[in-house]
Amino acid sequence: MTPYPSARFSVAPMLDWTDRHCRYFHRLMSRHTQLYTEMVTTGAILHGKGDYLGFNQQEQPLVLQLGGSDPVALAECALRAERQGYNEINLNVGCPSDRVQNGMFGACLMAEPQRVAASVAAMKAAVAIPVTVKTRIGIDEQDSYQFLCTLVDSLVEVGVDALIVHARKAWLKGLSPKQNRDVPPLDYERVYQLKRDYPDLVIAINGGIKSLADAKLHLSHLDGVMLGREIYQNPYLLAQVDAELFGDNYEVPSRHEVIRRLLPYIESQLSQGTYLGNITRHTLGIFQGLPGARGWRRHLSENAHKVGAGPEVVAAAMAKVPEFCYID
C-alpha cells in the first residue's frame, strides 16, 4: 500500500495546461486527488525571474515536477520547494520533446539510470518529503523489460518513494510530443509485471486511461492511477473520484456550483492583473455532454479575451446551460 494515500489517484503534469489556475479549479471538485505542477526546470527556478514555485495553498496536496539532470541543482530546487510547502517532488524522466532532450533531461535520461539515481539520492538527502520519478517503459529501440528494470533497480537502491509509469515507450526522434502520447502502443501488462517483480515499490500507471472504471481495474494491480487529457477535457470526472476511489462521500457540488465557487478566485486574480482567458480556458469542458455546453464554450472563447472581461462574462456563459436536476 502507498505510504501517502493521495498517490492513489492523480492528475498528470501537463505542460501549458496544469498551471496554478487549472489546479485551483480542479481542487474545487476533489479533496483527495493528487495534483501536479507543469514540469518546471531547475534553470527556471535557480536563474529565472518569475515565481516558478508559487501556488495557492488550496491546491494541496500538490507535487512539484522538476526537469533537470544535475543532482546539485535538483537538490537545491527540491529544498526550495519543500520550504515553499510542496508535499512531494517528482523527477521527469518521461518527456520526449526536443527542447527537453537538448537540456539533457526528460525521457532521454532513461538511458542514464545512474545519473537518475544520483539525482534522486541528492534530493532525498536534501528533503524529508517524498521524492518520486515519472518515466516511460522505454525509449527508441531500448524498450526491453530488462532496460526498464535497470532503471528501476537503480532507483530502488537509492530509496525512491514511488514510480509513475507512462505505459508507452517514447521515440526521441521522429515523433512530436503529441504523437508520443498516442502512437507508441500501450503496454499495461509490462507495468503490472513491474509491480509483481517489485512488490514493495509504490507504482502508479499513466497513459490512455479514460474512466474511473478503468482506474479501478488498474488499481486491482497497482498502487495508483494518473489521468491526464481525459481529466482536462472532462474535468467534472474529478467530482466522482473522492467517493469512488477514496470512500469520502461528502456532498459534491454541481457543475454550476463549481463555477460559482470559482468566481471569487477569478475576481481576486483579475485584481492582480490576470487575464480572464488564462483562467477560463481550463473550464471549457465542465459542462461536457449537457444541453448548452456549446454555448458555454463559445461565449467564453469569444469574450474572455476582451479588454476588461470579468466575472460577468463567466456568469453570462453559465446562463447558456440550463440549471436543472441533471444526474452526474
UniProtKB/TrEMBL annotation:
PROSITE patterns: UPF0034 (PS01136). The active site is at C95 (proton donor). CDD domains: DUS_like_FMN. FMN binds at P13, M14, L15, Q65, K134, H166, N206, G207, G208, G228, R229. It catalyses: 5,6-dihydrouridine(20a) in tRNA + NAD(+) = uridine(20a) in tRNA + NADH + H(+); 5,6-dihydrouridine(20) in tRNA + NADP(+) = uridine(20) in tRNA + NADPH + H(+); 5,6-dihydrouridine(20) in tRNA + NAD(+) = uridine(20) in tRNA + NADH + H(+); 5,6-dihydrouridine(20a) in tRNA + NADP(+) = uridine(20a) in tRNA + NADPH + H(+). InterPro entries: Aldolase_TIM, DUS-like_FMN-bd, DUS_fam, DusA, tRNA_hU_synthase_CS. Residues 11-314 form the DUS-like FMN-binding domain. Catalyzes the synthesis of 5,6-dihydrouridine (D), a modified base found in the D-loop of most tRNAs, via the reduction of the C5-C6 double bond in target uridines. Specifically modifies U20 and U20a in tRNAs. NCBIfam families: PRK11815.1, yjbN. Belongs to the Dus family. DusA subfamily. This is tRNA-dihydrouridine(20/20a) synthase. It comes from Oceanisphaera avium.
